[in-house]
Design goal:
Layout: H1 3-10, H2 14-23, E1 30-31, E2 37-38, H3 42-55, H4 60-71, H5 77-113, H6 127-130
Antiparallel strand pairs: 1-2
Helix pairs in contact: 1-2, 1-3
């Protein structure tokens, strides 16, 4: 099947198919004389695997590693567990930072309710923001 047919059969955009091809996640089985790439029906399953993995939080580089292991006859499932545990830990830290930022925003709103608006003067822009001490634990 041609690239456009692969995109339709896989439920992804043509740009996604091109992107996955550029990254080496999928490969054409052959090229025709007119330069068109031909893909097998196995590639549809491969794209579905990629989408499932990304939907679980795997990065495309992780997916490439797992696909490579599979192609070499190495069982990728133990590595998938390891990677997903890392991604889960990363997500947990990200959520903690987001919650801390959310609370900081709530605190700022509450504090600002009691503060007067100031007129910008000199180098000052907004006294509310300039007077607020950000939480050092939150990365910006």
């Amino acid at each position: 099947m041609q690239m456009i047919e692969l995109a339709q059969a896989s439920g992804v955009s043509l740009d996604t198919v091109r992107y996955y091809t550029r990254l080496g996640l999928i490969r054409a089985e052959r090229r025709e004389g007119n330069g068109y790439q031909k893909f097998s029906s196995r590639t549809v399953h491969r794209i579905q695997f990629i989408r499932s993995a990304v939907g679980l939080g795997f990065k495309l580089k992780d997916v490439a590693e797992l696909l490579g292991m599979s192609e070499q006859g190495v069982l990728p499932c133990p590595k998938a567990r390891e990677i997903l545990a890392e991604r889960l830990h990363e997500k947990e830290k990200q959520i903690e930072r987001e919650i801390a930022l959310f609370r900081q925003m709530q605190n700022a709103i509450e504090a600002w309710e009691l503060m007067p608006d100031g007129i910008p003067e000199g180098r000052h822009v907004c006294g509310l923001i300039e007077g607020f001490e950000p939480d050092k634990r939150i990365e910006v």
